[in-house]
Design goal:
This protein has 4 helices and 7 strands; from the N terminus they run βββαββααββα. It is mainly alpha-helical and 223 residues long.
């Protein structure tokens, strides 16, 4: 699997720089080119080539996706380096997408933002889709609750929060929030009906003993 990069092959040599990453990246990472001998890996013994590949793999294990290998692209080791660089590029982009989307959705409240690391396949797609699905599952009940509360604020007490989304019933905290919002709407409806009834009895029919009666309320509602 190959990703877009600024890899260049001139005179049979390949090098991948940090310009692969967008300038707006959440973190100012810099790519490190592993070539401790100061020579192209093609000119180094096989053991040294493998040692530098090992350094890169260890960096990946430690969560450092900024490392890049620089070596000849016309050898087997060059092909291995290019593949490793591509894998690290994908890991780096995915990590930055987590940070970017987390900030936009979680901090800025822009609920439509989703992860995107370009054209990928296999488990890369699964990872991206899983996170995007999680965001959608979190956003939909929140959006639904906001819709009902907005309607109530405008005096529309006919709206209620849907207790299932895409055919699946709300569960856990989502179900509790839904029931709470809908109970609030029911209580407000009862109060509105009672206010209308008492106002009619007192103001229109002259029955001064009319009292509002709303069942099952407590606290300020009861007062």
């Amino acid at each position: 699997m190959k990703t877009k990069s600024t890899a260049s092959k001139t005179s049979g040599k390949m090098s991948i720089k940090s310009s692969l990453l967008p300038k707006t990246s959440e973190k100012n990472f810099t790519s490190k080119v592993i070539n401790t001998t100061g020579r192209n890996l093609r000119a180094t013994p096989e053991k040294e080539q493998l040692r530098q590949v090992l350094l890169m793999v260890k960096a990946i294990r430690a969560g450092d996706f900024t490392v890049r290998l620089s070596l000849d692209g016309d050898t087997l080791m060059g092909d291995i380096a290019e593949v490793l660089n591509d894998i690290n590029e994908l890991n780096f982009n995915l990590a930055n997408e987590f940070v970017r989307v987390g900030r936009i959705v979680g901090k800025e409240g822009k609920m439509t933002e989703r992860l995107n690391i370009g054209s990928v396949k296999g488990a890369w797609v699964t990872n991206v889709d899983s996170v995007n699905t999680l965001i959608t599952d979190l956003v939909q009940p929140t959006t639904e609750a906001a819709r009902v509360i907005t309607a109530v604020a405008k005096g529309d007490l006919s709206q209620k929060m849907t207790m299932e989304i895409e055919g699946q019933p709300l569960k856990g905290e989502f179900a509790r929030i839904g029931m709470t919002v809908n109970t609030m709407v029911d209580t407000l409806n009862s109060f509105a009906s009672e206010v209308t009834r008492v106002a009619k009895e007192v103001g229109t029919e002259g029955k001064l003993g009319g009292q509002a009666d709303v069942k099952g309320v407590s606290g300020t509602w009861k007062d």
